[in-house]
Structure formats: structure tokens, C-alpha cells
TrEMBL record:
Residues 491-529 are annotated as: Disordered. Residues 136-229 form the PA domain. Pfam families: PA, Peptidase_M28. The chain crosses the membrane at residues 639-660. This is PA domain-containing protein. Keywords: Membrane, Signal, Transmembrane, Transmembrane helix. Residues 1-27 form the signal peptide. Gene3D superfamilies: 3.50.30.30, Zn peptidases (3.40.630.10). Residues 261-480 form the Peptidase M28 domain. Residues 491-512 have a biased composition (Low complexity).
Length: 669
């Protein structure tokens, strides 16, 4: 986290493809889910992926773990890509972008000859030469006991003329670190020391980020509450004109590096109704970054694997984003959102963010989009629909008797760019450097008065120091949210008839039929089809007549080319005794792989099975047929890739008479 500023038939078809090589396939589908589920994702499944990412980081310890510009980050990117590609269910892309990488040389501060432990702020400028003997001064404030008011240094007017050419000491709080550095720069300060405001954790280091470079900005560092408060007392104790003498050196260098986001989108689902989920993949250079944020990325990987194994294709496209350069200012997610055209941006209906879900002193936090627990910060406009997204989590936790709290819309993670673009956002968070309260201990256990993640941005952010209990809570919740936004629920069939049937016919049957019975027959149009027509909307139409109205007819297609497994498709027989089916291939790039003979059998009430066949011929063959006499209608249930088989392309034939009623549940249209 950045610092504050079921279709078994489909499975069978896939297995057949693995045996037959990289040919495209066809498969029939079933009705979608009748209730939302966590898809079987567990804390163990998430931890397995955390371990993989942590192992990559530890193996690259000497070159920056998984931080921006480090070899370990590119290795992690490749692992994510390979894991997702193995499912066969996603289109995967790597988005490259450039970002300024900052390294540090000597960083040293002395006040009246005493060394002060400090951390340089990311995006700070450096000193061109060591600053020596400068006065250490405060903003203008009448009361420095409340960690409020002018001492916060949020505006240039918080300083008087004493700030010019001096080192200024300001407290954390109220405004961003970047705003504090800018205000001090505007006031003419030579350098800035920001001290932590955490009285309950007085020795906690402050790692600040300015968010972006400030032109001619005053070099800025952070320090603990205890050290900062000691400096404050030294300034107040000094006589007029006798401010503590400060030596300040900050050596830093910027270089432009290329890094990447990984984007993966389901091949199935409505492409104009994209439900997006994201987590940053990079870490800080100080440690393995297991919780921050291998944990969020691992949850997405475990969920993506589970989603690929679902028995029916998703209704809405699901897009996963693994962000780079988050730790240096949310750069990756911002670059991604900036890269989308207005049209593409309008297709993204929701964004869920998962940044740190395994904190050792955790809370179960939801991004508080309605301000019910934490007031919405000034200047933040929460997009409509965000409260409904948060409700996905709060309802889930309520159903599982799990306490949870709202966390602040602070702009500390990758949801910020989506929020700024007006896209509804929510997410989960187990805590970073916030101090745990007694109430939170009562609800979640742990220890009050300590940070919710005691290993935040440290070398101790390891797998061993994460909370497995937190992963057990967050992992299934994340998977549930993905399922909820991915699927529109179908109506469950009634277990018993809605009415008791009468014991006798309601009408006396006629002695003779009122109409001549419809002759049973099977029509296949065309019986020979060009490979290019087969992968178009024309395809092959199969019509069975003479079936019993209102019953279910089953078509079995048996490919004879040895590359595609036999599959089935069902349709409801109409009042005219006719059942219609459609068969076509969806992978135009592999149209030649469909060439061959296909035997067709339709079983329906009213007589013996009906049989026939059709043939897909190579492009340019004699008499290839007319392509089915018209385009096949779309029912909205065409399947794109469903399940785990690298190179397996699972697609759905068009059922012309289906069309289960859907009730829209859990997705934003």
C-alpha cells in the first residue's frame, strides 16, 4: 500500500481438446448459478500464491526484492502471466509504462550536533550540497500540544519570515505530505522534517511520499513522534535568535525505468459490462512485501483460477489488474486508467481493490463508501454505485456473522484513479500503519495501541508474520465478490409442482385426432458447410420435428475428426412440436481445425431418435453449402473459454429456443 497522501459437458470437451492438440472446440452449456458462492476459495489457496510471490521476492533480496525496477518484479509479472495463461480462460496483456525510479545516497540530519534518525520522502528533491548550521524553526501556531492548527504546515501562510532559508519542523496530519512540502517550499524553507503524529506508537518510523516531484522543492524527510516532539521542545526552549543549528544532507538520484501492469480479462462475458478487480504487485525495496501486497495479488490469482473452473461461463466480463509502481505513487493504476478511451472507460462498471489482507494485527475493513463509519474526507466525491459495492461485502460478512468496520476513503491505494474517473469503487483492507483500538481488539483480537500491520514496509513483512486467520476471512470474501459481479443469477426450479394435477382430464378427449400428427424428421441445413461459414454467424441449423410439445429435446454431436470430444445441447420443444438447435465454431483463427464430418442425433419424446450428419469442408471446396440459410440468432449464452486447459478453447453452440429468464443480481449495469 502506498503511504498516506457447471457444465460437465464443457469439461469433457476441454479434456478432449487436450488429447487432440490445439484445435478449437464446441460445447453446450447449462443454466447459470442460482446463488452466489465463494467458489471454494480458501485462505490456504491464497497463502499458496502468497508463498510463490514471496519466494520470488526473497530470491531477489540483493537486488530490491519485488520493488520498482528490481528483477524480482519482472519475475513476479511473468509468474502472474503464466498462472493465468494456464487456466485458458483469460486474454492476458502486459502494459508497459515508464516511471521515475528514485535511489538515495547519504541521508543525514543533525540537530545541535546530535544525529536524528530520518527516512527520505519518496519523490523528494535532494540537497545540491550539504546544508550546515541552518536554524530549525516551526510554523506559526499558538498551541503545539494539540497536533493541529498551523503547526501542520499545510499552507505557506502557516509560516512567518523565519522559515526562509531554514529547516522547518511540521507534524503529520490534516493534509498530504506533498502539500506540506509544497507549502514549506512556497514559504522559502531550505528543508522539511515531518514527524509522526502517533502518540500511541511514539517510536514508529514515518515513511512519507510526496506523490510527485515538486519543482525546486525543499528536500523532505520523516521521523518518529518521539524524535519530532524532542525537536519541538528544543525549539521552544531556545531563546530568541538561538534556534537549534541543523545540518541536513539528502542525496538522491532519479532515473527512468520501464515497468508493467498485467491485465487479464475473461474471454466470456459481456464486453460492455466489465467488472474489474485489482491489487498492486510491486513492493518496497526493504523486504519481501508478503502482506503489502503479495496478499492482495495472491487473492486475485486464487480467485481467477477458481473462476476459470466454474461450470458455466460468466455473464459479465471480469477483468483483473495487477498494478506496478503503486509504492511510488499509484503510478500503474493511474497509467492504466489514463490509457482507456472514454468509450472503453464507460464499459468498466465497477472496480474492487484489495491492498493488504493478511495484516498480523488485522481488522476486517471495507472501503467505507457511504461514510457510515468514517466520514468521507473533504474533496472526495464518491461515485454513485460505490455504496452498493460495499454492501456486497457487508452483506456477505453479515451472513457469516463476521464483524467488520469501514475504512477511510483516503486515496492511499489504486482505487483512487478509478474513483477520479467516476467509476464505482470498493474493496477490502486488513490495516497498515493505523493504530488498533480497544473496540477493534474486542471484535478481531490482536493488541490495542499497535499498528494494524506491525511489519508495514519493513524487512519483517514476511509470510511467517502474516495472519493466516485474516486470509481465511478475506480470501473467500473476495472470491464471493467476484462471483457476485460476474454472474446474473437464474431462477431455481421449483421442487414440487405449483398446482396439484387433477385426477381426471379436464376435458373429454376427442375420439379422433383434431389434426394429423406431425411427421418426425430431422433437418440439417446445410449438410456441407465451408469452414469460413462455420465460424461465422451462419453455422449449421438443426431442426427436429414431431417431438412432444413442452418437453426437452437433446442433440448429441459426435465429431469424427478425432480432435473434438462428443458433446450435447438441449432445447425446449415448441408448441408446434419443433426443437431447433444451432452449431458453429467461434475461433476464426483456427477455422481449418473444424474440417471434418459430424454425426448428429436428436432424442425427444414422441418416437425413436432422429439421426443425420453434416460436414465442414475446407475453404474453396466444391459445393460448400449456403451456411444455414441465415444467421444463427444469439441467445446471450454463448460461451467463450471456461476452464483450465492451456490452449483449450471452449465455446457454446447457439440454442435457438432457450433463453432462461435471468434476474439481475449483483452486477452494475
Amino acid at each position: 500500500m502506498k503511504l498516506r497522501i457447471r457444465a460437465s459437458l464443457a469439461v469433457t470437451a476441454a479434456a478432449g481438446l487436450v488429447l487432440g492438440g490445439m484445435a478449437p472446440a464446441m460445447a453446450a452449456g447449462t443454466a447459470g448459478p442460482t446463488e452466489h458462492t465463494d467458489m471454494g476459495v480458501t485462505g490456504d489457496a491464497v497463502m499458496k500464491q502468497v508463498q510463490k510471490l514471496s519466494d520470488i521476492s526473497v530470491a531477489n533480496k540483493d537486488t530490491g526484492y519485488r520493488a520498482l525496477g528490481a528483477p524480482g518484479y519482472e519475475e513476479a509479472v511473468k509468474y502472474v502471466e503464466q498462472t493465468l495463461e494456464a487456466t485458458g480462460a483469460y486474454d492476458i496483456s502486459r502494459q508497459a509504462f515508464e516511471v521515475e525510479d528514485q535511489t538515495y545516497g547519504t541521508v543525514a540530519v543533525k540537530v545541535d550536533g546530535k544525529d536524528i534518525a530520518v527516512n527520505p520522502a519518496s519523490y523528494t528533491e535532494g540537497t545540491s550540497a550539504p546544508l550546515t548550521g541552518l536554524p530549525l524553526v516551526l510554523p506559526v501556531d499558538d498551541d503545539y500540544s494539540d497536533l493541529a492548527g498551523g503547526q501542520l504546515g499545510c499552507k505557506a501562510s502557516d509560516y512567518d519570515d523565519s522559515a526562509k532559508g531554514s529547516v522547518v519542523l511540521v507534524a503529520r496530519g490534516s493534509c498530504t505530505f506533498g502539500e506540506k512540502a509544497q507549502a514549506a517550499t512556497d514559504a522559502g524553507a531550505a528543508a522539511v522534517i515531518i514527524y509522526n503524529n502517533t502518540k500511541d506508537a511514539p517510536d514508529e518510523e514515518l515513511n512519507a511520499t510526496l506523490g510527485a516531484r515538486i519543482e525546486n522543492g525543499a528536500p523532505t524527510v520523516g521521523t518518529t513522534y518521539n524524535l519530532g516532539n524532542g525537536l519541538l521542545e528544543a525549539i521552544q526552549a531556545a531563546g530568541e535568535g538561538e534556534a537549534p543549528a541543523t545540518d541536513f544532507t539528502l542525496e538522491t538520484e532519479y532515473k527512468t525505468v520501464t515497468t508493467w501492469n498485467v491485465i487479464a480479462e475473461t474471454k466470456a462475458g459481456k464486453k460492455d459490462n466489465v467488472q474489474m478487480f485489482g491489487a498492486h504487485l510491486d513492493g518496497v525495496p526493504d523486504g519481501p512485501a508478503a502482506n503489502d501486497n503479495a496478499s492482495g495479488s495472491a487473492a486475485l490469482l486464487a480467485t481467477a483460477e477458481a473462476l476459470a473452473k466454474q461450470p458455466t461461463p460468466v455473464d459479465n466480463a471480469v477483468r483483473f489488474g495487477f498494478w506496478g509502481a503503486e509504492e511510488v505513487g499509484l503510478v500503474g493504476s493511474e497509467k492504466y486508467v489514463e490509457s482507456l478511451s472514454a468509450e472503453e472507460l464507460s464499459k468498466v462498471k465497477a472496480y474492487m481493490n484489495f491492498d493488504m489482507i493478511g495484516s498480523d494485527n488485522y481488522v476486517v475493513g471495507t472501503l467505507d463508501s457511504d461514510g457510515s463509519d468514517v466520514p468521507i474526507p473533504d474533496g472526495i466525491t464518491v461515485p454513485d454505485g460505490s455504496a452498493e459495492l460495499e454492501k456486497v461485502f457487508t452483506d456477505y460478512f453479515a451472513d457469516n456473522d463476521q464483524k467488520n468496520v469501514g475504512t477511510e476513503f483516503s486515496g492511499r491505494s489504486d482505487y483512487q484513479a478509478f474513483l477520479d474517473a467516476g467509476i464505482p469503487v470498493s474493496g477490502l483492507f486488513s490495516g497498515a500503519d493505523e493504530i488498533k483500538t480497544e473496540q477493534e481488539v474486542e471484535w478481531f483480537g490482536g493488541e490495542a495501541g499497535k499498528p494494524q500491520d506491525t511489519n508495514y514496509h519493513q524487512a519483517t513483512d514476511t509470510v511467517e508474520n502474516m495472519s493466516k486467520e485474516a486470509l481465511d476471512i478475506f480470501g473467500p470474501a473476495i472470491a464471493y465478490s467476484v462471483h457476485t459481479l460476474a454472474y446474473d443469477l437464474t431462477e431455481a426450479p421449483t421442487e414440487t409442482p405449483t398446482e396439484t394435477p387433477t385426477s381426471t382430464p379436464t376435458e373429454t378427449p376427442t375420439e379422433t385426432p383434431t389434426d394429423d400428427p406431425v411427421e418426425r424428421s430431422l433437418s440439417i441445413d446445410p449438410k456441407k458447410v465451408d469452414e469460413n461459414d462455420f465460424v461465422s454467424d451462419k453455422g449449421v441449423q438443426v431442426t427436429a420435428t414431431g417431438c412432444t410439445a413442452g418437453t426437452t429435446a437433446t442433440m448429441t454431436v459426435s465429431p469424427q475428426n478425432g480432435k473434438i470430444k462428443e458433446f450435447e445441447q438441449t432445447a425446449t420443444v415448441g408448441a408446434d412440436g419443433v426443437a431447433k438447435f444451432g452449431v458453429r465454431g467461434l475461433d476464426e483463427s483456427k477455422s481449418a481445425e473444424y474440417v471434418g464430418k459430424y454425426d448428429v442425433t436428436v432424442e425427444c419424446d414422441g418416437g425413436d431418435p432422429l439421426t443425420g450428419s453434416f460436414e465442414v469442408v475446407a475453404a474453396g471446396a466444391d459445393d460448400p453449402g449456403a451456411g444455414g440459410g441465415g444467421d444463427l440468432p444469439r441467445t446471450g449464452s454463448e460461451a467463450l473459454p471456461l476452464i483450465a486447459s492451456a490452449a483449450a478453447l471452449i465455446v457454446l453452440g447457439v440454442v435457438m429456443t432457450m433463453g432462461a429468464r435471468r434476474r439481475k443480481a449483483g452486477s452494475l449495469k
